[in-house]
């Protein structure tokens, strides 16, 4: 059965929106202690205890509590959420910026743990694990042929720093099994994907989320770019759903002169907390560009709003998500947590960029899909803003509140004579799956190639484009790429580069024809 392509953008929007939800959940200034002060609030506890001890059938009261908490929070706003213990640990590891493990990127391929690429200088790389290897056993635990859930699989590979693990590997290229002993170590989870010079004087930094280490990573890369001659800076927060607001504020501080307002928050009591730039800014001069799209949210919008409202730089792209709520976390003894909205934040001109959520959570998150349908992603004139929510910067530029950051320079969704379905498909995981399978069939085809030779090879061949078209048809997607050949070939080459050479190589290819980058460099 063929998949109706008119529904494809909805599917892919849902996938990308998860990052927005995640970022929204983690956009908070700190944790809170919670103690019930009203005896009437013990009613719920009494009821649960009564069910637990007296109800005629066996009942999992934990699941009832979780469902109750979910239902309560659903009556509030889309970003007040309950996070089960099983998810909380993974979320916090992501935002901490590291975890303890063996250091390998893997893909579940035909019920086997297939290594995409070991992390550079990690335990797996040091032990000699290679791309394409299958991990058959972790100690004596069988990992293949079992359809293990991801969290269960991770638990087998993680452990304490310095703890030993023996992996049984099948190396397809040599058709043999190997037993390798590793010591688990701290593995960094980078929030800066790439930093490179796009021209002699234009630096580029891609931030995928705002974690505990983001500001530190940003400063290290900014310093390196400045040493190489960067005078202008592009910060890419497309598809960045947010994270810790302090990290975004710290980066904004590096760009803004002393005493300029970065952001302020207002809570239920009307208390206003303002945050200003300090004297420490290391990039207060030179052109600044912030790249945003419909999945840039929360902390990403704080950074973009601070730059736009202070007339410090140019916002390029498409209207951002529109998340202007601040959460605080309450941790529970079982490892779960609630993140509750405790304030709204406002950009320096005083605008709230929070989009409406009065119609419920489902309508709130589907609003991004509506932008696709009403043409906003293709035409700036289709962006609906309210004249009553106009604000002015110090230099008189009009900016808007009420639903995301509207860019100064609009750049439509990159379709290259194809359609939006193709554009979003190319940013989904299906491209990575296809590329891994192609490499798995004949990894030796790229053996010994320099990056320049690899690029030449990819430019000259149509084989992977044709195979990808067949792959898409074979997966039930009725998408024809004839009108988008150059776009598809670029994303395929970039993904091959990522799996063969690393993340930086992906961006070196993808950015060469990037529409937003072109809009900046031609200025």
TrEMBL record:
All copies of domain PDZ, residue ranges: 98-173
CDD domains, sorted: Peptidase_S41_CPP
Keyword vocabulary terms for this entry: Hydrolase, Protease, Serine protease
Ranges for domain Tail specific protease: 175-356
Keyword Transmembrane helix annotated: no
Family: Belongs to the peptidase S41A family.
Xref: PANTHER family: CARBOXY-TERMINAL PROCESSING PROTEASE CTPA, TAIL-SPECIFIC PROTEASE
Protein name: S41 family peptidase
Lineage, top ranks: Bacteria, Pseudomonadati, Bacteroidota, Flavobacteriia, Flavobacteriales
């Amino acid at each position: 059965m063929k998949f109706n392509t008119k529904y494809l953008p909805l599917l892919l929007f849902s996938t990308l929106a998860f990052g927005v939800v995640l970022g929204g959940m983690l956009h908070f200034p700190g944790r809170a202690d919670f103690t019930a002060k009203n005896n009437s609030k013990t009613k719920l506890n009494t009821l649960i205890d009564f069910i637990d001890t007296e109800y005629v059938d066996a009942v999992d009261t934990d699941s009832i509590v979780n469902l109750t908490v979910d239902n309560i929070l659903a009556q509030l706003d889309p970003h007040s959420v309950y996070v089960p213990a099983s998810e909380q640990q993974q979320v916090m590891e992501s935002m901490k910026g590291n975890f303890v493990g063996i250091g390998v990127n893997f893909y579940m391929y035909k019920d086997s743990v297939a290594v995409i690429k070991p992390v550079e200088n990690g335990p797996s790389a040091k032990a000699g694990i290679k791309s394409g290897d299958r991990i058959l056993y972790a100690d004596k635990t069988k990992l293949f042929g079992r359809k293990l859930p991801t969290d269960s699989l991770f638990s087998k590979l993680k452990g304490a720093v310095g703890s030993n693990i023996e992996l049984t590997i099948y190396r397809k290229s040599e058709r043999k099994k190997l037993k390798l002993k590793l010591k688990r170590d701290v593995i960094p989870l980078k929030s800066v994907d790439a930093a490179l010079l796009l021209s002699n004087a234009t630096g580029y930094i891609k931030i995928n989320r705002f974690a505990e280490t983001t500001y530190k990573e940003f400063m290290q890369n900014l310093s390196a770019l400045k040493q190489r001659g960067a005078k202008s800076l592009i910060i890419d927060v497309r598809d960045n759903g947010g994270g810790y607001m302090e990290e975004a504020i710290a980066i904004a501080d590096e760009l803004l002169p002393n005493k300029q307002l970065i952001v302020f928050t207002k809570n239920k009591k009307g208390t206003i907390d303002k945050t200003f730039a300090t004297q420490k800014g290391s990039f207060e001069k030179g052109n600044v560009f912030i790249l945003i799209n419909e999945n840039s949210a929360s902390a990403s919008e704080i950074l973009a709003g601070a730059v736009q409202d202070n007339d410090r730089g140019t916002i390029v792209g498409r209207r951002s998500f529109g998340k202007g709520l601040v959460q605080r976390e309450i941790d529970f003894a079982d490892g779960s947590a609630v993140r509750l909205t405790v304030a709204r934040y406002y950009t320096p001109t005083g605008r709230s960029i929070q989009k409406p959520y009065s119609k419920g959570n489902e309508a709130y998150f589907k609003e991004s899909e509506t932008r696709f349908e009403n043409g906003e992603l293709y035409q700036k004139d289709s962006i609906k803003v309210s004249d009553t929510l106009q604000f002015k910067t110090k230099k008189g530029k009009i900016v808007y509140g009420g639903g995301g950051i509207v860019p100064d320079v609009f750049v439509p969704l990159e379709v290259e004579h194809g359609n939006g379905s193709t554009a979003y498909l190319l940013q989904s995981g299906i491209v990575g799956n296809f590329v891994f399978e192609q490499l798995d069939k004949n990894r030796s085809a790229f053996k010994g190639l320099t990056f320049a030779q690899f690029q030449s090879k990819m430019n000259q061949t149509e084989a992977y484009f044709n195979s990808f078209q067949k792959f898409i048809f074979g997966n039930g997607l009725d998408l024809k790429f004839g009108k988008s050949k150059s776009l598809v070939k670029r994303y395929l080459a970039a993904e091959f580069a990522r799996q063969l050479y690393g993340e930086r190589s992906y961006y070196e290819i993808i950015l060469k024809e990037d529409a937003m980058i072109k809009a900046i460099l031609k200025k």
